[in-house]
Amino acid sequence: MRLRGCLTRHRAMPGRKSGIFKRIFTGADGVRAGWRIVLFAAIAGTLIAAGMFLLHHFRVFQLLGIDHPHHPPPLTPLAVVVGDSVLLLSSLAATGAMAWLEGAGFTAYGLGGARKTRLFLGGWLGGFAALGLLAGLLIATGDNIVSRGAHGALGDLRYGAEWLGAALLIALAEEISARGYLLWTLARGTGFWPASILLAIGFGAIHGTNPGETPIGLLTAAAAGLLFCLAIRLTGSLWWAIGFHMAWDWSENFVYGSRDSGLRFAGRMLELRPHGNIWFSGGVTGPEGSVFCLAVMALAAIATYILLRPVRIKTFARG
Q1: Which of 33, 233, 287, 306 sits at 20 to 30 Å (Cα–Cα) from 65?
Q2: How many Cα atoms within 13 Å fall on the side-chain side of residue 229?
Q3: Residue 144 and residue 272 in contact, taking contact as beta carbons nearer than 8 Å
């Protein structure tokens, strides 16, 4: 039996009855979307578990000085790169395996297209502007206090470049794992927006494992997931979402030097600190824990729809 394309080879024939066992596992497009997602999750989960085991076995986190669950030090760009590389490589490997089993190209789940650079840069500018607007609101209202970092011009250049690379890796890892193959496949079975809502809820819930996360922070993470899905729906590509995600994290972690989902980061150009009511300041969660962040996400969604609607393409079969 030839394995390449096997998941799409066994399709239900119109007007032809199939046994109940076959109907459970296959539909009009071959193996049903739910079973494909289970297989993708099993491959990615196994690889992630193996990668994390190796990092702990060889005491990589201990060598990086971040193996302190109760009082973790600020994360460095290198620590972020090491941790998120496991997620990125595992997601890419699982995506490649599923593409092979479906007889599709590796870039079929949002990484292809002729406008990658333009979409990426547009998303980057959008993310930088959105985080700047949020920081400006927090400073203007007195809910955050801003001060200068302690590294000087040369230190800022060094950390700015390092965090730029780390932010790109974070964006690639999280977008490919959360809204790549999973979104394309789930949308085939449920329709695009039900799939987007389910994945956004999951994206928000995963952030609940971060220290200092709050209900508002979980809501804003889910809202960000929906924003990225909107861009994917309009462009048929992950690249706008990757650019936005990268610029948002780079600005939050380095430029404004605030907490991000409760996490602290080393090498900040500025330092944004909460002051006053946590509903508005974000508290230990950072700007993403502020109600202002929900407002900024809503404005970003409106702007994204207006700017990207002219390039809207039909990508998904349903929804």
Answers
A1: 287
A2: 28
A3: yes
| Spatial separation of the C-alpha atoms in residues 132 and 144, rounded to whole Å | 13
Fill in the amino acid letter for 111: L
In the chain, count H helices and then E strands: 13, 4
DSSP assignment letter at 253? I
Question: pLDDT tens across 80-113, in order?
Answer: 999 999 999 999 999 999 999 999 999 999 998 8
Structure tokens at 115: 């406008």
At 71 the three-state DSSP class reads: coil
Pair 99, 108: CB distance under 8 Å: yes
Nearest to 214 by CA among 279, 264, 142, 272: 279
In sequence order, what DSSP letters do the residues of 203-222 get, joined into one string?
HHHHGGGSTT--HHHHHHHH
Distance CA 130, CA 142 (A): 19
d(CA 295, CA 314): 29
Q: What distances in angstroms separate CA 28 from CA 12, 187, 218, 250, one per listed residue?
A: 5, 15, 37, 43
